Amino acid sequence: MTKLAPVLSAHWDEKDSFTIEAYKRHGGYTASAKALAMDPDAVIQLIKDSGLRGRGGAGFPTGMKWGFIPQGDNKDHYLVVNADESEPGTCKDTPLLMANPHVLIEGCIIAAHAIRAKHAFIYIRGEVTHVVRRMNQAIADAYAAGLLGHGVELVLHVGAGAYICGEETALLDSLEGFRGQPRLRPPFPAIAGLYARPTVVNNVESIASVPAIVANGADWYQSMGTEKSKGTTLYSLSGHVANPGQFEAPLGITLREILELSGGIRKGHNLKFWTPGGSSTPLFTDAHLDVPLDYEGVAGAGSMLGTKALQIFDETTCVVRAVLRWTEFYKHESCGKCTPCREGTWWLVQILRDLEIGKGTEADLAKLLDLCDNILGRSFCALGDGATSPITSSIKYFRDEYIAHVTNGACPFDPIASTLFEGADA
Amino acid sequence: MAYNDEQLAVMESIIARYPRKRSAIMPLLHYGQSITGYVNNEAIEVIAQLLELETAEVTAVSTFYTQYKRQAVGEYHVGVCTNTLCAVMGGDAIFAGLKEHLGVENDGVTADGKVSLEHIECNAACDYAPVVMANWEFYDNQTVQSAKDLVDSMRAGNPKPPTRGPNKLVTWKEASAVLAGLNDGLANEGVQAGEPTLLGLKLSKEGK
User: Fold this and answer.
1) ipTM of this model?
2) B96 contacts chain A (CB < 8 A)
3) Fewer Cβ within 10 Å of end Cβ, chain A: N or C?
4) B113 and B58 fall within a common domain
5) B135 close to A (CB below 8 A)
6) What is the pLDDT at residue A177?
7) Domain check: are A246 and A292 in the same one?
8) What is the tens place of the pLDDT at every residue in A262-281?
9) Is residue A5 part of a domain?
10) Is B56 in the same domain as B12?
């Protein structure tokens, strides 16, 4: 049985955990002092040695990303933290920043030193007023304490409601003051990122993991996790479970283990399907309870670790309704730049709407898969790819349920049964 | 209403945060909403002048992002998450209940101007589903009835406080100023975390 291992979340249960005083009480800002005394290349090597991989979804090695920044090029370098947490199901960075904004600031100080950046930006989604308050207050307090402003400037940039800005190049366009649409790569941000200058874009959790690694060493971090997925990470459990929440554990824990220690599926119900890492990661079923939740384990089982957003749905949930709603999301959030995604997601919604109300045909399933085939890998960015994941995976595992909608001429499920209040007008 | 010198000084201070001034366009649009409640033509013109852009360029940005409104919303703008997980857990029922209770459709505003309603996408609080936001503050674990009580409290002029936020719900305009990066002094109010956020830590301390 894998044990939980709170590192990022270790002090969240202290009432004032978000203040600079509380952060310093537990050794906060000693790691940045240590790192600033090191050669920047040595800091990059330390993060490489730790095995830390990106926690925003792709799992790219963080130290390697830093190492791609050209050195001695006499150009401005930029660090940009992606705090635009919007992937459906994903809810880890927001509570992290509400409970401990200073760990991100300290991570920024260390990362900026390593990549020789004088400016860092945190791009946070705009729909979280109180997190914006906490983050800006923390930045102000860090300036007042002399931790910022001597070598690195840090600015919080607040988004305005566009999922696509979580895509790193769309984020950069948005930060430059344009509509947030993805850029063609190459050039990658490491060569031409913000203002066409070398830029590192990292997820909140990745940067927030850095201070503990600097403080405790690469070997300590390496000692947790699996062969290729090192360290601890936040797993976010939500949906039809007895007790939803955040669970920080070594990479490689399984959903069965998380359910066992947290109290399982909601009483009287059974697991039907779940996402391992948000709605863009192909669905899993109860056959995948023992898949190790690390980068390789989840990929090997046909999905992606993504953001470790474990959205759990029980047998009362209509998979067609669930997939339709996600697809409507992707259609709404498609930036419109490329045709396969803009037009494709629109058609996916039309077909799924008919299927969900029982007006579809069996031939519609083939049409859906054909459309997905023309979107996946043919879109400008990963939004289009992600839009196909719930559709193709749900047809793979629940084809009969789609057919039941066709033969019934209606959805066979009662949506009230899947609510938390189960019909009671609570 | 023209922007006064004090407001223009705030806008200049926002621009000064960035190495290149065009980057200030988003916080400036949030700031415009804090003055007039939505992005009006004057905000577009002032921002265009300050950033040396065409008004069409500012308009193009403002219409890309759903948080920028081109018409007035309520003093309290209520968003019900109807993305899959919240929808299934009760968000659809809450949204339907609020539409009926307020007598407005999606994007509608009550006649008294107090409450506007919008269905929103995932707001990064899935472990607190079903989630309702008001002026982008968290109202966790809602039911149809609790959401109706919430909007009633807003219409009565005494809105219930957020579950994870300051002790008092600020207005839409005040929240927009926060999103523009201005400090309203409320950062230290409210909890550091709710119970679900702390569950893993608690279980770990119990030896799990």
Assistant:
1) 0.98
2) no
3) N
4) no
5) yes
6) 98
7) yes
8) 999 999 999 999 999 999 99
9) no
10) yes
Share of chain B above pLDDT 90, in %: 99
Tell me the average pLDDT across A222-229: 97
| Number of domain units in chain A | 3
Distance from CA of B156 to the nearest CA of A (A): 22
Cβ-based contacts of B65 with chain A (< 8 Å): 126, 159-162, 180
Residue A421 confidence class, pLDDT cut points 50, 70, 90: confident
Is there a contact between B14 and B182 (Cβ–Cβ < 8 Å)? no
Its domain, for residue B24, covers 5-62
Query: Same structural domain for residues B41 and B80?
Result: no
The beta-carbon neighbor of B197 closest among A4, A99, A249 is A99
Query: Alpha-carbon distance A300 to A392, whole Å?
Result: 17
pLDDT at A138 over 70: yes
pLDDT of residue A425: 47
Tokens of A39: 């050669």
pLDDT digit string, tens, across residues A326-340: 999 999 999 999 999
- B81/B125 same-domain check: yes
Cβ contact, residue pair B192, A99, below 8 Å: yes
Instruction: Kindly report the number of other CB atoms within 10 A of residue A425's CB atom.
Output: 10
For residue B197, is it within any domain? no
Are B65 and A129 inside 8 Å of each other by CB? no
Is residue B58 domain-shared with residue B81, that is, in the same domain? no
pLDDT in tens, A179-189: 999 999 999 99
Looking at the structure, tell me whether residues B54 and B99 fall in a common domain.
no
Picking from B64, B98, B104, B69, the residue whose alpha carbon sits closest to that of residue B81 is B98
Question: CATH code at B110?
Answer: 3.40.30.10
Look up tokens 């100023």; give the residue. Answer: B177
Written as six digits, the tokens of B79 are 């968003």
Taking the CA atoms of chain A, what radius of gyration do you get in angstroms?
A: 22
What do you get for the CA distance between the two ends of chain A, in Å? 38
